[in-house]
From TrEMBL:
GO cellular component, one term: membrane
TM region positions: none
InterPro entries, per database record: CRAL-TRIO_dom (IPR001251), CRAL-TRIO_dom_sf (IPR036865), CRAL/TRIO_N_dom (IPR011074), CRAL/TRIO_N_dom_sf (IPR036273)
Record-level Gene Ontology MF annotations: phosphatidylinositol bisphosphate binding
Pfam family, one: CRAL_TRIO
Protein name: Alpha-tocopherol transfer protein
Upper lineage: Eukaryota, Metazoa, Ecdysozoa, Arthropoda, Chelicerata
Entry-linked PROSITE patterns: CRAL_TRIO (PS50191)
Species of origin: Caerostris extrusa (Bark spider)
Length: 284
């Protein structure tokens, strides 16, 4: 760590982060083997998961996010399975030509570099989202892609994610979509089902839409999560929390081109989409 800025796509854990996983997540080779065996045993005994074959890499994400507390890891995994069974449309019909709009329209993207602590950075500019051209259903699918596919990176599993959300918004376009159902589905899917460590959320450019949404969202959040949400009066304040090298230029950083199009193409190949979510149903 220190001065080094690492790329988002790394594919492995550098030695420093191997040690970090041991200190922060209780991960050792022995505990990993034991944890995988125990969580598979729990899955075989539960009615929601007994007919599912999980990839070891996918199960490791849940063990890491719950710091190798196997019971809690399985509870989160089961919540994900139930969510997927209740909402199969979120995990099917992924179309690159649709989801790529999140990048080309500058709505949502993963930034190409990590913070010095190894965190992935999710960048959202709400005002660039046009629900007429990119319906809410496609937004949900896009978040499935961004979260589950970014978690294939071991660095994301160990270090977690930080989000920058520019909530400047046109209330005419967006306010009608701030329903309790939509907001709860986003919260439940992201916080209670996805095996991601959420380190901080940075909100800039407050708006009427966000004020309305926040009234509902904060009722779902734990005090721990609320303390990790930071409100900024100006995008320039992000420089107090992020290295200049990882931020887009119009937010005071150095990045001119921050679109991770190549990554999105790679994770949306048929081969990658076939294994999204890390499990297969067994024949019964």
């Amino acid at each position: 760590m220190g001065q080094e800025i690492l790329p988002f796509e790394l594919g492995y854990l550098p030695e420093y982060f191997v040690r970090k996983a041991e200190v922060e997540l209780n991960e050792t080779p022995e505990r990993k083997v034991q944890g995988l065996r125990q969580i598979k045993e729990l899955a075989k005994r539960d009615k929601h998961t007994k007919n599912i074959v999980f990839d070891d890499d996918f199960l490791t994400q849940y063990l890491r996010v719950r710091k190798y507390d196997v019971a809690r890891a399985f509870s989160t995994l089961k919540a994900y399975v139930i969510l997927r069974k209740k909402n199969p449309n979120l995990f099917t019909n992924f179309r690159f030509e649709s989801i790529v709009k999140t990048v080309t329209d500058r709505c949502v993207t993963i930034l190409p570099y990590r913070c010095q602590d190894g965190c992935t950075i999710l960048f959202i500019e709400l005002d660039n989202w046009d629900p007429e051209n990119f319906p809410v259903e496609e937004v949900r699918r896009a978040f499935v892609i961004y979260l589950l596919q970014s978690l294939r990176e071991p660095m994301s599993q160990v270090n977690g994610i930080k989000a920058i959300i520019d909530v400047k918004s046109n209330p005419v376009k967006h306010l009608k979509h701030c329903t309790p159902t939509n907001l709860y589905l986003i919260y439940h899917g992201i916080q209670e089902c996805c095996p991601m460590r959420y380190k901080s959320v940075h909100v800039v450019n407050d708006s009427l839409v966000f004020k309305a949404a926040w009234i509902i969202i904060k009722t779902f959040l734990s005090e721990k999560i609320k303390k990790r949400i930071h409100f900024h009066s100006s995008p320039k304040e992000l420089l107090d929390h992020f290295p200049k090298a990882v931020l887009p230029k119009h937010y005071g950083g150095d990045l001119e081109n921050y679109q991770t199009l190549d990554w999105l193409k790679r994770v949306m190949t048929p081969e990658k989409l076939a294994t999204i979510g890390g499990f297969q149903l067994q024949e019964t």
